[in-house]
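Summary for the steering committee. One of the milestones for this cycle was to obtain a three-dimensional model of the protein with phosphoric acid mono(formamide)ester bound, which we needed before selecting residues for the alanine scan. The sequence and ligand used are listed below.
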Amino acid sequence: MKQFYDLADCGTEEVGRLLATARRLQAHPDPHALEGKVLSLLFLSPSLRTLASFQAGMARLGGATFVISPDMSIHGLETRPGIVMDGTAAEHIREAVPVIASYGDAIGIRAFAERRDIDADIADTEYKGLGDLCETPLINMESAINHPCQSLADWKTMDDLNIPAQGGKFVLSWAYHPKALPLAVPSATVHMAAMRGMDVTVLRPDGFELPEPIMEKARQAATEAGGSVRETSDRNEALAGAHVIYAKSWSSTRHYGDRMGDQKLRTGLEDWCIDDPWFESADPECRFMHCLPVRRGVVVSDRVLDGPRSVVIQEAQNRMYAQMAVLYHMMGSGE
Ligand code: CP
């Protein structure tokens, strides 16, 4: 595997192989598999789980990691193209990426969306430009529009819990948040659930529709896998019979890049906080999922997050096993 950028690039068979490796490495540790290998980690955006799970996963396979982020005492990092560097930044990303990549056998890069131009973010222009700066195998640790490591872990979590694929009802619900957040997780999640063959409903208030190219990509995956994808603002209709309610907040697509417009639209939507009544018409075994970090009492109530429906800790732990599988197939002997 030369790149792990998008679950869609893998196809169902390769996802199956990755999940099988993740399960095997969880049950039977292989502490020498990546001995002598180094994973470079470049974080241009903040993290807890991604940072810790890649470091822990690589260590469990016998390899090593190093982390570079602008918060560290590195030279100020300039990312703008074509800039005259007469300010505080002393290093440009165009040199930094190939240098960092040259020290490792694979590189993970995280760079969130700029959220100025929706077409550029959907095309992942900035992230792809970073990847083009080196030839080292690349792992997408979250870009403007994708988070494949989260999606692979979420797929494994649903398999572990025997949540049905064919016939399984997956609701990706927008949730209130005081800030406009990126589209990466909702875009990756709707596609992942569709690729798994589930019947997917995107539940969101008007103005927070997912972009049409994202929905179309998910619809194509659903067609291939035997599932379906639709979008609604009707909470009662969406939640009936749900096997999973996956909460996430995201920017208004109607006011993308317009902070004031987005803020105005989300004002009054504070009741989009997942709470017990949301599960009344759902399947009795319905689970609550979220990628974390999550704002308690804003996105979800304490009683749901702390209750038996919540599988957020399993999702976070599966990040490590899912990524170990990716690392194994990218840098190890493969299977
Ligand atoms: N879910 C996720 O990617 O978490 P972090 O932002 O903490 O890495």
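Key point for the committee: The chain has two domains: 3-147+319-331, 162-310.
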